[in-house]
Amino acid sequence: QPIVSYMEGINNSSGSTQTLPTNIKPGSKWSYPNIICCKSPDKLNRIYISCEPLSEEVCKAIENNTISEPRGDMKKYGREFASKFEEWHKDDAARIWSFGTAPYGKCNILVDQTRAVPYLKEVKGSIIEGFRQITSGGILSDEPLRGVRFNLMDAKIHTDPAHRGPGQVIPATVRACYGSLLSAQPIMYEPMYECQIEVPIDSQNGVFNTLGMVRGEFIEMSDKTDIGIPLCSIKAFIPIVETLKGKDENGKDKGDFIGLLRGETKGKAFAVMKFSHWQKINGNPLIKDSLSNKVIMNIRTRKRMKMDIPSFNDYYDKI
Q1: φ, ψ for residue 311, nearest 5 deg
Q2: Beta bridge partner(s), residue 199
């Protein structure tokens, strides 16, 4: 069975998830908090974190190295960052602590939103390390994270250095980030191919039939009849997993895209594919038997993880 990489992300800000945890009764007035608080293992430190989605523009700029990692004069860095992205204020950009783990989890940002927290500088490295652990493997299926901005809203750090070491602060940060992801409508992304198909005009229906079989998305079509050539060119997006032989989400055998295309067009179509972008998978991952939930369960089975997605209440600590 070929292995395809996926990405995890969020659809909204912290507190927006509508699917209740399993231990909350349906119809309850309980709702997800906007800021997630987690305590360290010794209960003497607290980390408060919220999260929100990053724009696709920021993600692509980080992927293409158009913007550099935060370092040097942060006021100047903040002005330059805010000038490129309208939704960012220069004060927020100047307080960016870190990007995610390169190469796959790099499109995530940790921002310090705290005000005068004692001993925060002493634990900054541990908080960044916890954040980077999250970006290399998310809550749903331990796949890399993409397009999430984590905001450190507040922290309560113990005065004694023996009680604020990495062994206390990193787990608290990891749990707070996990909780904020579950509260922000978590989603899965799948990689997409851009496919250019050349086919005789009388066989184009076979191409559209094939796209329907593989969750393909038709983009545009052009033909060359004006110069006397009975060919048309069809452009479409196709999930990479659908171009491979293997088993579908329900465990049934399926053919690869090129094989199906040849069968439907009697071998007359010619396709060229290249990676295009990451696209959200339909369905709510927290609802059983949705498309994205089936994908997650297949990944968890392959990685020999527990077959239950963790519950929000496993991570949120009431004050």
Answers
A1: -90, 150
A2: 232
User: What's the rounded Cα separation, in Å, for the pair 129 and 172?
Assistant: 11
DSSP state letter for 287 = S
Helix or strand or coil: residue 288?
A: coil
Contact assessment for residue 231 and residue 196, using Cβ atoms and an 8 Å cutoff: no
Enter the tokens of residue 311. Answer: 């519950």
Q: Look at residues 270, 254, 250 and name the one whose alpha carbon lies nearest to residue 262.
A: 270
Peptide bond into 103 cis (omega under 30): yes
Strands of the chain (E only): list them.
7-10, 36-39, 46-53, 96-99, 108-112, 148-156, 186-200, 217-223, 231-239, 246-247, 253-254, 270-280
Q: Are 104 and 135 in contact (CB under 8 A)?
A: no
Report which secondary-structure segment, H or E, holds 179. Answer: helix 166-182
Task: Give the pairing type, strands 108-112 and 96-99.
Answer: antiparallel
Total-model pTM: 0.89
Distances (CA, A) of 3 to 125, 189, 246: 34, 15, 10
Q: Which amino acid is at 280?
A: K
DSSP string, 181-240: HHTS-EEEEEEEEEEEEEEEGGGHHHHHHHHHHTT-EEEEEEE-GGGT--EEEEEEEEEG
pLDDT digit string (tens) for 90-143?
999 999 999 999 888 999 999 999 998 999 999 999 999 999 999 999 999 999
Q: Report the DSSP pairing between strands 148-156 and 246-247.
A: unpaired
CB atoms within 10 A of CB 132: 21
